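Re: that backbone. Tokens:
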């Protein structure tokens, strides 16, 4: 996973909510490309359930998944339990016990978009309530433990013919997962 970092100097202690992660696709192998409509779906003119319906796509048709935005409506929270490093290379941040790590949204395969001291970093974190294992498969204290999961909404922008609009009914589409 790539570390994503932003400057440290003027960043707030925690990200503002709602937090919008533009271009995000929130699971492993998630991809924007041609999708198959598996259930009739209303496509909205704006990213708002109260927005007017721009058009409807019918089961069996195809749309282009153009981009997406994962909106974090409630931050997740993790706590550092023992000294460790989050991120890679020049984007790495050393963290110490008791330090807060804010969790924005999943990025796939146990990795999460996190906010650490003003930096955005994709980091692998153990599931809430799940322990960690050493290389010898012995239980050990996790370096970072998730205390509270984030709440998110995933919106995707799609195109059908020359019409574009937004949906959060992503289970109504197939061919989103490039690993299938």
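Recovered sequence:
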């Amino acid at each position: 996973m790539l570390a994503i970092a932003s400057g440290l100097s003027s960043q707030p202690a925690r990200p503002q909510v709602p937090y919008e992660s533009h271009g995000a696709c929130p699971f492993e192998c998630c991809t924007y490309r041609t999708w198959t409509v598996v259930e009739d779906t209303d496509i909205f003119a704006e990213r708002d359930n109260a927005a007017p319906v721009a058009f409807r796509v019918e089961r069996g048709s195809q749309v282009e998944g153009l981009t997406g935005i994962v909106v974090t409506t409630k931050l997740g929270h993790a706590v550092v339990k023992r000294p460790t490093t989050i991120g890679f290379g020049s984007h790495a941040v050393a963290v110490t016990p008791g330090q807060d790590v804010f969790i924005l949204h999943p990025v796939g395969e146990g990795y999460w978009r996190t906010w650490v001291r003003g930096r955005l970093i994709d980091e692998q974190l153990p599931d809430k309530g799940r322990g960690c294992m050493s290389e010898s498969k012995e239980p050990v204290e996790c370096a970072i433990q998730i205390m509270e999961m984030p709440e998110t909404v995933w919106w995707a922008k799609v195109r059908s013919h020359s019409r574009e609009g937004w949906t959060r009914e992503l289970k109504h589409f197939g061919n989103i997962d490039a690993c299938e």
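The two ends are 20 Å apart (CA to CA). Confidence is low (pLDDT under 50) at residues 1-9.
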